[in-house]
Design goal:
Layout (H helix, E strand, L loop, with lengths): L8 E9 L5 E10 L5 E8 L2 E6 L8 E3 L12 E8 L8 E9 L6 H9 L8 H9 L13 E2 L6 E4 L8 E10 L6 E11 L10 H9 L3 E3 L2 E3 L4 H7 L7 E12 L4 E12 L2 E4 H9 L4 H5 L4 H21 L8 E6 L5 E7 L3 H24 L5 E3 L5 H13 L12 H11 L5 H10 L5 E3 L23 H14 L13 H19 L11 H36 L6 E10 L2 E6 L5 E5 L8 E4 L4 E4 L5 E3 L3 E10 L4 E6 L5 H9 L21 H11 L1
Parallel strand pairs: 8-15, 9-16, 23-28
Antiparallel strand pairs: 1-2, 3-4, 3-6, 4-5, 6-7, 10-11, 11-14, 12-13, 14-15, 17-18, 19-20, 21-22, 21-27, 22-23, 24-25, 25-26, 27-28
Amino acid sequence: MRAVLHKDHVKVRIVRSDRKGRPEGRVVEIVERSAQPIIGRLLQESGVWLVAPEDKRYGQDVLIPKGATSVAKMGQVVVVELVEPPALFGQPVGRIKEVLGEVDDPGMEIEIAVRKYSVPHEFSESCVALARTLPDKVRPQDRADRIDLTDIPLVTIDGEDARDFDDAVYCEPASIGRGKLALKGWRLLVAIADVSHYVETGSAIDIDAYDRATSVYFPRRVIPMLPEKLSNGLCSLNPDVERLCMVCDMFVTGEGTVSAYQFYPALMWSHARFTYTEVAAILGNTRGPEAVKRKHRINDLLNLHGVYQALLKARQKRGAVDFETTETQIVCDENGHIEKIVPRTRNVAHRLIEEAMLAANVCSADFIAQSKHQGLFRVHEGPTPEKTELLRNYLKATGVGKTISDNPSPGEFQVIAEATKDRPDAQQIHAMLLRSMQQAIYTPVNSGHFGLAFDAYTHFTSPIRRYPDLLVHRVIKAILSKTKYQLPALPTPGEAHAKLARRLEKGLASRVGQPEIKPRKVNAEGQAWLAAGLHCSANERRADEASRDVESWLKCKYIKQHLGEEYSGLVTAATSFGIFVTLDAMYVEGMVHITELGGEYFRFDEMRQELRGERTGIRYAIGTRVRIQVSRVDLDGRRIDFRLVHEGDPTTARALMEKGVQREVDPRRAKPSQPPMRSETAQKKSAKKRR
């Protein structure tokens, strides 16, 4: 293992199995060295320059020859390019390719993350040059063959900090038919930015967009999929300007069923830019101060709320899974330091827009499926048989009184969620329900969306920030013009093309949670769509990992200021090596190692997802309330360690006094700190001696 580094491709021979039956092997051949640069801090030890990798999965420091340090200074964060790979008896050797700056520079955590996860963050010269040639506004020739909707009061509803506006909505009461037989409902228009009009297939902008596959969102910074001229300007549905759009025009019945829809390219004019907070306030009080400012749009918002309630009925009827989870938002100051961490609250406006977007996405998937055109679907499969059995055992062990079938429906999950929402361990049960499900992926093979309970679903509503949505727009346009959209040919035709597809199937599928695709005959077009889906799915995971990495670093940096302090929290996960606790006040998660739980042996109960003490029977499970002390923060490892404390614990008092925080401790109530947990073998030997 000394001769290989993280992300090298190797050939391995299985040589034996361990006590648990897991295969163990040895590296017999290094197939391909990773070309990814290494990010780390430049250090000097005994006159030798070296870089300590920031990513701890690189197990070795990189030696830097004296002439290869560039302009970097000791302690700075640098990007290293390997010139000599590691060997059995020699460390890897590299040269400094780029100096990022000091470790405490504002935004350094983002600079590290984009390189650590290979997130493309600079547009190619050809892409930038092409973007410059695009117009600043809609031209007369762009209006051709489009329906003019500029008189329809479409509005955008987004967050306060949003800069790119993908979607606009409008709703009015409508009916189909006449007299007593008339079917009453709503006409709902969802207008989406027409990115495909400006981004042609195979163009320099398209190549860069495909490479990124998605925009990546960090606190205070976004790495966009498209150049800013498009994402924040020409394609963004900004208020009071003409914009090109693709419209999904739907008739929604009073029961929330979309009984008719059509797609068409249009010209629109956004009549207002609303925020979620503002819309929720207006819907809550139509005579309040927010409503007075927007009096001309109140009826439109009430109509949108009306169609939302209808769509909500349909959601409940089909049994879509709807768990309320707490997402956090990191609030930073001008220097990029965390001021506070607050929960993101979802109000009625969030749900209103979500239901409108879901309706448009379902119509898009149906339109592609009915036309029998190749395209990308957003597929979310149900739990695997193994996860189904694990969940069934857990529900039985916790006495829920309800279970799931061998082939469960989303409605079964929703019934359990509703039945347990008032239980004290509701959060624990809902977490287990969520964990039993698979991750959603993009694929040309439609097998429905389990969580949303749709037979067919895709992504149509965010082409500014997601490449699959851009592909869906192109397919819909091709169907409307009675042509066929062809994905651009890969640069490696023939057998190389097939090898690439097989490699994507095997390699990327494991990263996105998709079982390896069974061998079957797939033509070149099918392979191209399959590869595109796997590429977009893998890059979606990459963006999520990079975002989480930055958030974890910022949270570690924030909590480091509170070392030694006590907080109350909730157990959010239990494992064989300890429990994870999320603090009530800060929404920061840390780990209490099993050795910090007490002086007895704890066993992990996988069925109940809890740690139980053998002597006292004390249990730590998801949902258990505990009081902890912040004991250690590892910025490089993105790890926060807690220890359990009791009232009057002298260890906590000493830590607080060292920080200058005074707190009186009653010695009569103080308990001695718990000794560290010994191994099971040591405990048995000690018990034998006592006997």
